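Priority: medium. Attachment 1 of 2:
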């Protein structure tokens, strides 16, 4: 039977930096949420998700690692709706377990869509969530789709959603359009605080009237985004230490490029620009801050500026030296430049606009919300109907600047209801206790609990990795004891060296089992290489008797090739991975033939048999699985 070749696609320009920049504290996951009038029914939500996924093939993708770049590949996994029990914006992408890059959760009356940013941006996720909501609410009502709802679910641009607009619009731009970003002249203020012990987000959510907010921003002759950003800046400035008030404050703002460039791509298509406020402007009041931010945003969202900025980003990707650099080297370099760029940013904002549904379903929707895994304080806002939700996020335990922002909103005349997730105590990570600070809940007053929160209580999640600590203790004890015994009772044979080799081999296997346990073919290759190296090192420690290359290495490689072939027949494995690693095992198995040609071995039969086995394996893979090998090489070696 001919193996079905999986579809794959290159990552867009913005997606590549998210993979290099992700870390244990910044998962690069964002969350879109909506609140309904009734509690969520999990069975109907699962059915709605299955139906929605058919219209969004992009969301049926997983991330794979190539030699030069990551890439997207079709994934057959079925997403399962789950009740929210983990921390918001928990990691989605795991290199050792390729899977879908989104999840759908629910809690009471809320539905959450969490997405890894390399898959899509906020607009693409918003389209998916809106389609999911339409199908869910129609199923809940037990009726057929109306004509308006059918048109909503099948827009004329549905076929254009998989387009890579970055590549189409900015690839091979003239170098004259490319400019380097100006360097900051003044030092930049960075918000500091105590990190949450289990890396959870500090989330404070405000809800107010959209009409009132629009009227107030119109009175100041600025957009709603600029008005909310100015209040956000004032709240942060009020808690800024006096010794740092001579620093400038910078705000990163994402700009949706779809309207400007006529794109309907559901993939990432935005540009982040940085707005700057000088110390004297921060002290001048709300009106001046609004005017200055508006001028900065108009300048940096102009067609001329964006064309140059986006051409420069695309130029980095098309740099010949960067393209041919292996991914394992490229990732730390991109991460370094991303980290350096983040040091010049004080705050971030993101306004996703409105969550819209067909008119017959809008009454079922009470509010929407947006949250992002953050490295610095960030303001996110989204509206639904007349409800504007403002979410203030931070990686720190302190909530003083959020309360200052709440006071500023009230001073502007807004009626604000608030909600917040629960944070562990700062010393909880040290004591190991599981106490939660009860400062969350829905309220129209201070941040104190008055009614059940929309955020579930999640206990402190510390993973001490006790097993690895025990293994480290045993390893150190074994090595130390062996050298102590050898020093006390000397012997001509240096047996403590073997103990060291054994401990090193043990740790190598522990790492392989942890990282490669879900890819059996890759495990066999790693196992073969490490076991062969261990045999060579052991033989060298005895004064080189030659048994490693005469017997051990050929037997290890031949048995690994045989085991991989048997597993391919009886165990359900990923065909692309299996074929590629079978070919790699065959290439490694040719090494004993090199031993024969160079007369390194004194016993020729094991090396001869291993080389013949490897040659037969390589020929069988190339003859019977060549299209699959070619497709895998195209995926993993694309530049």
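Attachment 2 of 2:
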């Amino acid at each position: 039977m001919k193996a079905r070749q999986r579809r794959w696609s290159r990552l867009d320009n913005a997606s590549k930096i998210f993979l290099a920049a992700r870390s244990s504290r910044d998962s690069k996951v964002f969350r879109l949420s909506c609140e309904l009038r009734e509690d969520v029914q999990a069975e109907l939500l699962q059915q709605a998700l299955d139906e929605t996924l058919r219209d969004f093939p992009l969301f049926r993708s997983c991330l794979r690692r190539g030699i030069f770049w990551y890439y997207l590949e079709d994934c057959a996994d079925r997403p399962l709706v789950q009740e929210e029990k983990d921390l918001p914006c928990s990691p989605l992408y795991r290199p050792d377990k390729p899977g879908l890059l989104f999840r759908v959760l629910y809690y009471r009356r809320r539905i959450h869509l969490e997405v890894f940013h390399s898959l899509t941006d906020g607009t693409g996720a918003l389209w998916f969530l809106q389609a999911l909501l339409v199908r869910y609410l129609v199923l809940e009502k037990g009726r057929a789709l109306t004509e308006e709802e059918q048109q909503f679910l099948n827009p004329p641009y549905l076929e254009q959603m998989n387009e890579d607009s970055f590549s189409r619009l900015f690839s091979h731009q003239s170098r004259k359009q490319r400019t380097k970003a100006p360097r900051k002249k003044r030092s930049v203020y960075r918000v500091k605080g105590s990190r949450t012990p289990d890396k959870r987000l500090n989330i404070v959510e405000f809800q107010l009237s959209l009409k009132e907010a629009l009227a107030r921003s119109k009175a100041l002759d600025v957009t709603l985004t600029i008005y909310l950003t100015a209040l956000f800046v004032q709240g942060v400035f009020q808690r800024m230490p006096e010794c740092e008030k001579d620093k400038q404050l910078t705000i990163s703002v994402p700009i949706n490029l779809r309207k400007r460039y006529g794109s309907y791509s559901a993939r990432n298509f935005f540009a982040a620009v940085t707005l700057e406020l000088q110390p004297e402007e921060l002290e001048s009041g709300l009106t001046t801050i609004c005017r200055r931010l508006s001028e900065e945003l108009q300048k940096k969202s102009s067609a001329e500026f964006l064309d140059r900025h986006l051409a420069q980003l695309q130029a980095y990707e098309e740099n010949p030296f960067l393209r041919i650099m292996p991914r394992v080297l490229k990732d730390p370099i991109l991460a370094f430049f991303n980290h350096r760029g983040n040091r010049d940013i004080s705050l971030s904002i993101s306004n996703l606009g409105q969550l819209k549904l067909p008119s017959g379903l809008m009454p079922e929707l009470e509010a929407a919300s947006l949250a992002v895994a953050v490295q610095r304080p960030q303001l996110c806002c989204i509206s639904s109907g007349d409800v504007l939700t403002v979410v203030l996020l931070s990686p720190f335990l302190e909530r003083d600047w959020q309360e200052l922002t709440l006071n500023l909103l009230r001073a502007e005349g807004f009626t604000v209801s608030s909600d917040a997730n629960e944070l562990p105590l700062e010393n909880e990570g040290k004591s190991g206790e599981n106490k939660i600070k009860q400062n969350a809940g829905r309220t129209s007053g201070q941040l104190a609990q008055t009614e059940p929160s929309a955020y579930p209580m999640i206990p402190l999640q510390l993973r001490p990795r006790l097993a690895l600590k025990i293994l480290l203790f045993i390893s150190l004890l074994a090595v130390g004891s062996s050298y102590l015994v050898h020093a006390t009772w000397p012997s001509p044979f240096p047996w403590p060296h073997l103990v060291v080799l054994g401990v090193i081999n043990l740790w190598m296997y522990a790492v392989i089992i942890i990282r490669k346990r879900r890819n059996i073919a890759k495990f066999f290759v790693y196992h073969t290489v490490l076991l062969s190296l261990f045999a060579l090192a052991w033989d060298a420690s005895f004064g080189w008797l030659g048994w490693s290359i005469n017997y051990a290495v050929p037997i290890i490689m031949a048995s690994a090739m045989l085991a991989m072939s048997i597993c391919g027949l009886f165990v359900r494995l990923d065909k692309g991975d299996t074929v590629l690693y079978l070919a790699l095992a065959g290439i490694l198995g040719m090494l004993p033939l090199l031993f024969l040609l160079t007369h390194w071995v004194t016993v020729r039969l094991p090396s001869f048999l291993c080389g013949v086995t490897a040659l037969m394996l390589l020929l069988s893979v190339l003859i019977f699985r060549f299209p699959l090998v070619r497709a895998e090489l195209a995926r993993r070696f694309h530049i």
